[in-house]
């Protein structure tokens, strides 16, 4: 009986500890970010932006401290390939596979001391979520008003408006170091989605190339590298609660540099069908390499488990 209660008691204690620390840290760091953000309504300030990023990084450092001290049994296997030189003053466009909300925490854990603050495209509608939406806006997350194909068909001008919104959102990042993350699959991987898509990849959903094409078109001359991050959970993708309760024993992360072909420059993905097909083929080939990498990492861990 005692041996059965002890793990449950440990989980409850760990859950209360993690939730209390994260909640307290959020209430400590959140109001200054929002208060400083309000000053930008009257005057744009690089100093305010830098201060808000420092506050946000402080919040992330608390999360990372929890990972190191409350989840000490979690083992990291992080590989940065030799041709990828990362630093906190860089400008990076990053792609990644997507399996769980934990992916964001993994990205933050890795990136805090190696890369600028990671941002990603978000829907404009998130601005109405109290605190979270305003923080995204203040911290420079590109927020886009995306219209449906049906809406664009009824009003073709909306297409160019969406593109202009995306361009402005990306250009706002250029005043500072940044990491702009794009989950090419567009949604989290599940076996059901994989089967429904009839995906040609063993470990991935089909990539959507449009967002990457747009970001490269806008930012390519300004970025230091196109980075591909691969996250593997050898024991299966966890949910957020499982991660913070210490039920994840190992996570593998691989980062590699992707060379951008010269022909990519200046292309029109939206209106040039030939360019669009060539770009999609390039992304498909990158995804095939990524799929093989995931398989190799899983096989390595399967061998370790067998030993």
TrEMBL record:
Record's keyword annotation contains Transferase: yes
Protein name: Acyltransferase
SMART domains, per database record: PlsC
Species the sequence originates in: Acinetobacter shaoyimingii
Keywords linked to the UniProt accession: Acyltransferase, Transferase
Transmembrane segments: none
Top-rank lineage group of the source organism: Bacteria
MF terms (GO), sorted A to Z: acyltransferase activity
Keyword field contains Nucleotide-binding: no
Domain Phospholipid/glycerol acyltransferase, residue spans: 92-234
